[in-house]
Design goal:
about 75% helix; about 210 residues; mainly alpha
Length: about 210
Amino acid sequence: MTTDLSQTRRESGDDRRLAIAAAARSIIVEKGLEGLRTRDIADRVGINIATLHYHVPSKAALIALVAESIRLDFRNQALRNSRADKSALQQLRLEFADFRETIHDTPELIIVLTALIEKARRDPEIGAIMTPIYDFWRSQFVEIFRAGIADGSFRPNLDPAAAALITTGALSDYWRQWTSFRPAIDQLLAELERAFIATPVSAEDRS
C-alpha cells in the first residue's frame, strides 16, 4: 500500500496549527492577551520558534488562527443541532441553547473571545480579523428575525437589524461578567424571546 506524502504532510500541518491555536487560547485564559508570547506557545506545543513562525509568521497570523479555531468551534456546535426545517422561533431558541451551553460547558472560549473583541476595539489589525466574525454572528440573528416576521413567529413591526443588535448586545454583556449585576441566563433569554415574539407564551408552553 502506498502513502500519499503530500496528504500526510497536510494533515500533520493541520494538526500542528490546531495545537498552536489550543496553546495560544490556554495562555490567553491564564495570562490575558497581553501575556501571549510565542516562546510560551512553542514550548507548550513542543516545537521550536522557527517551526512556530513557519505556521504563524506574524501576530496577525496567530490571532487569525485563534479566531478561526473559535469560529470552527461555534460552527461544529451549530452542526450538532440542525436548523433545517425549523421555524424562526425554534432557530432562535437553538441559538440561545448554544449560548447557554457555551457559558456552562466552555467558559474558556468566552474568555478568549472577549479578550480578542476588546483588543479589536483598539487594534485595527485585530479588528480586521474579529469584526467579520462578530458581524456574521449578528447577521445570523438578522436572518432569523426576518424569517420570523415572514412566518409569523415575531412581531410584524420588528426591525431585524435592531433586534439583532439588542440580542447580541445583551448576550455579549452577559458573557463579560465583569460586575455583580447579572440575572440568571434563563431569565435573560426568556425576556429576549418575549420582546420579539408575536404572541407571548407561558413557561409551560415553551418547555
